[in-house]
Specification:
- The strands form three sheets. This protein has a five-stranded mixed sheet with strand order 7-6-8-5-9, sandwiched between helices.
- 41% of the residues lie in helices and 18% in strands.
- Helix 1 packs across helix 5, helix 3 runs antiparallel to helix 10 and helix 5 packs across helix 13.
- The chain has two domains: 207 residues, D-Maltodextrin-Binding Protein, domain 2 (3-Layer(aba) Sandwich); 95 residues, 3-Layer(aba) Sandwich (D-Maltodextrin-Binding Protein, domain 2).
- With 319 residues, it is an alpha/beta fold.
- InterPro entries: SsuA/THI5 (IPR015168).
């Protein structure tokens, strides 16, 4: 959230919002249980499984931790909305959609990075050297309104270009590398492993990264409102566990790269991922809410949303 799985289509949000959260967060011995639906990517809600920081902080608050996964994002969200888990991770874009379409979720921690792990990369054979060269070309994105589409729209808007002159091609997570290397697309707008794989291809050209734009697309950790309201002290403990995990990664960035390798990243990919910056964990305070409202306005400008949702009502500030 970092990424990859950072944002999904708005249509998925509506389906998830209809599910509703139910079930109990109690363990068999009567204590509180924090059930984590974690993703197969190296965000901190995944890597913290190795450090045990959630368990340590949870013990102080009288709660245990149950790990469920790794699950793909849609399955993870379905698991929480079905009442079978309490927390998962996503991208800020997906969360902004969620804030406007569901009352069942709140965000409790932001995983923030510069944006170097997101961007637009062109193939050598495309002959593309700058954004304007993408006119009439095929650009692979994850889904309409998701991270890649956001990056493409933002890059073109800031460059004063017309994104409607680009042919967007929707790709699933596993087909980016093949589509890029085989020339099925002329460029991709993506993040994390997909971006790293494209950057590692000989002759490819990075046109722009999230760090070069006014991007508010980061990873975010979300919890069922039911758990947040019923167990505020336990949730604060989990937030502290994520803060400790971020400090661990800042001191030793291989915390992230080793996890990507564990999930199947090649040595070349790991080497490229190692050039990305190490995220921090930030509270959902007024400054973050303001940033996400700016993201919401960008989503409105790009036609992804009709209006900016009430972000402040969908967060828990653990600062």
């Amino acid at each position: 959230m970092r990424l990859k799985f950072a944002a999904l289509a708005a249509a998925s949000v509506l389906a998830l919002a209809a599910c509703g959260s139910s079930g109990s967060a109690s363990s068999e011995d009567g204590g509180t249980e924090f059930r984590v639906a974690y993703l197969p990517t190296a965000n901190y809600l995944t890597t913290v499984k190795d450090s045990g920081f959630l368990e340590e902080e949870g013990e102080k608050a009288g709660t245990t931790v149950k790990w469920i996964g790794p699950l793909d994002p849609v399955t993870a969200y379905d698991t929480v909305t079905a009442g079978e888990a309490d927390v998962s991770s996503t991208g800020t874009g997906y969360f902004v959609n969620l804030a406007g379409n569901s009352e069942h979720w709140v965000a409790f921690a932001l995983e923030k990075y510069s944006g170097k792990s997101q961007g637009i990369v062109a193939t050598e054979q495309s002959g593309v050297n700058e954004l304007k060269d993408l006119y009439g070309k095929k650009v692979g994105i994850d889904s309409p309104g998701a991270t890649g589409d956001y990056l493409l729209n933002l890059a073109f808007k800031e460059a004063g270009l017309d994104v409607s002159k680009v042919e967007k091609v929707t790709l699933d997570t596993t087909s980016f590398a093949t589509a890029f290397s085989s020339g099925q697309v002329d460029a991709i707008a993506s993040y994390d492993q997909n971006l790293a794989a494209a950057m590692a291809v000989e002759g490819s050209k990075v046109l722009i990264t999230g760090a070069d734009m006014d991007s508010y697309n980061w990873s975010i950790h979300i919890v069922s409102r039911e758990f947040a309201e019923a167990h505020p002290q336990e949730l604060k403990a989990m937030y502290q566990g994520l803060r400790r995990e971020a400090e661990r990664a800042q001191a030793d960035p291989t915390v992230i790269t080793k996890k990507y390798a564990e999930f199947g990243a090649t040595d070349d990919l790991v080497e490229q991922i190692a050039t990305f910056d190490v995220p921090t964990i930030e509270p959902m305070d007024e400054a973050v809410v303001a940033d996400l409202e700016k993201l919401g306005q960008q989503y409105v400008d790009f036609g992804f949303l009709e209006s900016v949702p009430d972000i402040a009502s969908a967060v828990v500030d653990e600062s």
